[in-house]
Amino acid sequence: MIGSLDLALSAGYLLAIFGIGLWAGLSRKQTSAGSYFLAGKTLRWPTIGLALFATNISCLHLVSLAQSGFDSGLLSGNFEWMAVFVLILLALFFVPFYIRTGVTTLPDFLERRYDRACRDWLAGISVLSAIIVHIAFSLLAGGIVLQTLFGVGMYTSVIVISVLTGIYTIVGGLRAVVVTESIQTVVLLAGALVISAAAWQAMGGWEPMEAVLRQEGSLDRLSMLRPAGDEMPWYAVFLGYPVLGIWYWCADQTIVQRVLGAKNEREARLGPIFCGFIKILPVFVFVMPGLFAYTLWKTGGLDLRQLIRPETGTVDSKGIYTLMITQLLPEGLIGIVIAALLSGLMSQISGALNSISTLVSYDLYARFRPGRTDRELVRVGRISAGISLLVSLALLPLLNQYESLFNGINDIIAHLAPPITCVFLTGIFWGKATALSARYTLWIGSAAGVLVYAGGKLAGIGAGIPFLLMAFYLFVFCLLLQVVLTWLAPAPASSLSWKSPGEALKNADGTGGGYRLAAVVLLIVMTGLFWLFR
C-alpha cells in the first residue's frame, strides 16, 4: 500500500490529464471528420514522434519488460531496438506513400491498391487487434499493478481509468489524444528514469551488477544477440521481428494514424525518426531495472518473499516492477512512478480508441451509408469507441490466464501479422501484385496463422520453434502464395507502387529534407549499440 502523498499525486495527475484532454479536444470545433479523426492535418514531427512512442509504450511494457529483464536479462530489448529499423522504413518508404495517396485509413489504402475485399478484411482485423492487443492487455497489466499498490479491486481501478480516458478521447478526437500523449511520454520517461536510478544506486552501479552475474556464470544476460538453442536466437530476431514490426509500425491503424495527421510530408517523415531515437531508451529504463532487480535479489538487496509461489518455491516475476516501486523508492517519488504507469495505460487506451473510431466510421459505416454527413461519422466513431472499451473490459478475465503477458501478446501478433505484412510490402514495392493474390493471401494466410497457433497450443505442434521464427515461416508461405497467385492470374501493373526505392526518398510537396541525414545518424547509432551489447 502507498502513502497519502503518493495517492494524492497519482489522483492529481489523473485529473490533470483528464482536464487537458477535454480542453485540447474542445478548444477547436470537432464537427468535421478530418478535424476529429486526423487533427485537421496540423501535427508536427515532435508531437508525432512523442505520440507514436506513447501509443507504443503502455503500462504493460513497463511491467513486462522489467519482468523479462529479471527473467532473461537484456534479451527482450531486441523488440525495442529492432523497432528503430522498422521506424526508419516507415519514414523513408511507407509514410510518403500514404501521404501522397491521400488515404485516411490503412484499409482505405488496401482498397485503392487492391480491392474492397482486402479493405474489409483489414478493417475487421485492425479493430479486433486494437481491442485485444492495445486495450485489453494494457488494462490487465495496469489493473494488476494498481491492485497491488492501492489495494483496490483490479476491475474497479481499470474501469475508473477507462471511463476518464474514454471521455476525453471520445469527445476530443485525435487532437486530444496527441496532446495528452505528448505530456504522458515525458511523464512516463521521467518515472522510468526514477526507478532506473533507484535500482542503479541500490546495486552500486554497473560493475557490482556485472560481478554478481560473472560469479554465477550468467554474463549472457547482458547479451542482446543469443546463440542457436536459446529461447530467442539472433537469427530468429533478425528474420522474425521485421514481420511483426512492419505490421505493427507500418500497417497498424493505431500507430500510423498519428503520421496521417501530419501537417506535411516532411513532418510525417521526421516524426517516426524522432520516435526511433526515443526507442533507444526503453532497454536502459524499462528492461535494465529488471536485470538490476535480479542481482539485487541475489545479493539480498531486494526482498521477494511475497512473490514466491508456495507450491513450487519459484519467483512469480510478474510483480517485480511493483515490488521495486515499494521497496526502492521513498514517499513522493512513488507517486511520480505511478503517474508514469498511468501515463502508459491512458495513452495506449486513448490511441487505440481513436483508431477504432476512425476505422469503424470510414471503413465500415461509410460503406453502407454513402450519403452520410461528417457529423454522422463523428457520432458513429464516438459510439464505436465506447462499445470497444466495454468489450475490452469484458475480455479481462479471459486474458488474465496468461502467465507472461508480453510473450502472450507477441505470440498472438506472430501468427496475425505475416499475411498483412506480406500484402503491404508487395503492394508498395511490387506493382505486378494483383488484387486476387492479395485477397487470397490475406484469407489463407490468416487461416494458416490461426491453425498453427491452435495446433501449438492444443497439440504442441511446433512447440520447439521460437515464435519469431514461426512468424518468418508464415511470412515466407504468404509471400510464395501471393507470387504464385499473381503468376497464375496476372493483371496490369498498378500505378500505386514505387517504381524504384529512390523515388520514395524525394519529397513531393517541396517541404525539404533533413530526414535522410537523421535516418543515417540513427542507423549508425543503432549499429554501434548492437555491437556493444552483442
Automatic annotation (TrEMBL):
PROSITE patterns assigned to the protein according to its UniProt record, in alphabetical order: NA_SOLUT_SYMP_3
Transmembrane segments: 6-26, 47-67, 79-99, 120-146, 152-171, 183-203, 232-250, 270-297, 333-360, 380-400, 412-430, 442-465, 471-493, 514-533
UniProt-listed Gene3D superfamilies: Sodium/glucose cotransporter
Membrane topology: Multi-pass membrane protein
Record flagged with keyword Phosphoprotein: no
A single MF term (Gene Ontology): D-glucose:sodium symporter activity
Keywords of this entry: Membrane, Transmembrane, Transmembrane helix
Subcellular location: Membrane
An annotated GO cellular component: plasma membrane
Family stated for the protein in its record: Belongs to the sodium:solute symporter (SSF) (TC 2.A.21) family.
Protein name, per record: Solute:Na+ symporter, SSS family
Source organism (scientific name): Siphonobacter aquaeclarae
